[in-house]
Amino acid sequence: MNLVEEANLAGCCGLYCGLCPRFQSKAPSRCLGCKILCLTLSCKVFNCCVKKRGLATCAECEDFPCEKNNPEIHQYEYFITNRVCIPNLSRIKEVGLEVWLEEQRERRVMLENLLGNYNDGRSMSFYCIATALMPLELIDRAVGEMLTSGRGDDPDIKAKAKALRAGLEDMASKSGIDLKLRRKVKA
User: Fold this and answer.
1) Could you give the CA distance from residue 109 to residue 18 in angstroms, rounded to a whole number?
2) pTM, entire model
3) For the chain, how many helices (H) and strands (E)?
């Protein structure tokens, strides 16, 4: 993927579409990213940042952070975590969009490796959340520990996925990272 294609995966809100299960999906309903599809028509952040102000991301805005991109206001998550929005925008502000995109590309490549080698058909969303929230070193360590323990040699993909998931959950828990999406409780 070249830099222009990678830049199209940078949501103005701080999300990186390459780590989203809807982007990684092989289904006909696959999303190509916030900047490619017209889903942004109803997005308040996109309308403010891109349409109204002509900016690539909220990190460029003099009003950043504001209520439109505050994850505390938008506390419920559906298929991707928004807990990374403000930290990602702060990182873009610190190192620039190009460096941040390279960091996100590394995350996307890691995710695609997990999906290609350890996806039992039910792990995509979990791996997307893990690669969005966890330091890559922890993910590498979890994969390495699974492989050195022999569980990575199991021909059963479900067993490998279960072992990796347990390793990732353990690493995340020890690091104080919650890998569950925050969902609205049904009444």
Assistant:
1) 9
2) 0.88
3) 8, 0
**Do residues 106 and 90 lie in contact, with contact meaning Cβ atoms separated by under 8 Å?**
no
Type of residue numbered 57: T
Say how far apart CA 30 and CA 73 lie, in whole Å: 27
Assigned token pair, 182: 């925050």
**d(C-alpha 4, C-alpha 1), whole Å:** 8
Instruction: Provide φ and ψ at 16, rounded to 5°.
Output: -115, 110
pLDDT digits (tens, 9 = 90+) for 79-110: 678 889 899 999 999 999 999 999 999 999 99
| Total residue count of the chain as it appears in this document | 187
Q: In terms of C-beta density within 10 A (0-12 exposed, 13-18 middle, 19 or more buried), how is residue 47 classed? A: middle
Say which DSSP state 131 is in.
Answer: H
What is the DSSP-derived secondary structure letter of residue 10? B
Alpha carbon 60 to chain centroid, angstroms: 21
Rounded Cα–Cα distance for residues 187 and 88 (Å): 33
Q: What angle do CA 37, 41, 44 make, to 5 degrees?
A: 120
Alpha helix positions (H), the chain: 3-7, 21-24, 44-46, 85-95, 97-118, 124-133, 136-148, 157-174
